[in-house]
Design goal:
Length: about 475
Amino acid sequence: MPLKIHNTMTGEEEEFKPIHGNRVNMFVCGPTVYDLTHIGHARTYIAYDIMARYLRYKGYSLFYLMNITDVDDKIISRAKERNLNPVDLAQQYTVEFYKDMASLGINSVNLFAKASEYVAEIIAQVNTLLEKGYAYVVDGDVYYDISKFSEYGRLSRQKPDELKKHRIEPDPRKRNPSDFSLWKSQKPGELAWDSPWGKGRPGWHIEDTAITYTHFGSRYDIHGGAVELVFPHHEAEIAQAEAATGEKPLVKYWVHTGILNVKGQKMSKSLGNFVTIKDALQRYDPDVLRLFFASSHYRSPIDFSEENLRSSKELLERLHATYNKVQRLLERSLDLTAFRESQFTRIVSQHKEKFIEAMDDDFNTPAAIATLVNLAKEVEKSIPSGLDEKTIRNIFETLKEMCSIIGIFEGREDKKTFREISAELVNLIVEIRDEARRKNDWETSDRIRDRLRKIGVILEDTAEGTKWRV
């Protein structure tokens, strides 16, 4: 079964066929770094992390690019409130963002691209739009003229007359109320760069298209982000890029994550239900958060509540118990029988196929997790009856593959194997016995030697020190 992805542009699930064969270019809108990232960011970035993991699992050569908006009105405003330099504020929250991503196990991004590092490319793209007649200058500000782009509104399915009600950036100098900024002239004391239109800084939308054009060219495979970005942000990206390059579509598959609520309400500081990623991680294991978000389809609304998180925590613990049990069976090399080997191999294979089938269906993580849970139940029922080592290894590798795609248990796996831990414990006991011998405490020394012998560890006192063997 081929991978199918829901395309926001068409409203349909489409078979995934990359533009360049096996190579996949994916861009996801990153944060505006004026504050700590919140659980809405976590929901979105975990979803795309899982997509990236699965694309690589399927054998695609994926380049995953995410921008960081470190030049923006919100950053300037927050810096003024705190009497800080906007550059320093943005850098501070960029570092915190990296920490949050690492804490959540989001490690699939190839490149985080800061907008401030692409100003030359942004200026070049704005200049192209001016030369082609899609933009105009007003006293050092540059605006995109949406009336020049006939397909503006097709992603959000809005008709031209409906766009008139959107006065995104109030400015009586604009030709159309919905025209948007490409370049903003410098206000006193603000961060600015030199440009052909005077000192200023980039508009929000132009940052992304300059970055993607630099790394991907005029067209690429997947563009992701939260559903709130469809209009005006992603609509503006299409208008800018396709007008500048003359090629379309800019993006082959538009993918958007659903809305996150907290206890049934939209998250807002004014409602007192604003939860940062750091706050969430103080209360919940990262794997709980990953499993919680993945238990809903990425396009579905999701409610961040204690009850839902508690259910995810309980489910994670059950899965982890099975995962550890299978891992221990391998590490301890228990005497396993060949009972039901062929039958259970078939069961494992069937569950793996169902898992892949679910992920191929527009990254259906709830169905994939249900398959993982069912496999864990089958394993729990069958282990007491006896399984051979080959089958146990097959079970473990399959569980590990599934969990790795969801991104769980990677941080929870023991850093050392059971055998390594056992060896260190024996070494510790031998050290304690050596200390007893130095103190002429022969009774304790002999007791330790005898107890170790009973569990199969033989001590040999040599001129080079005490050695042991199983």
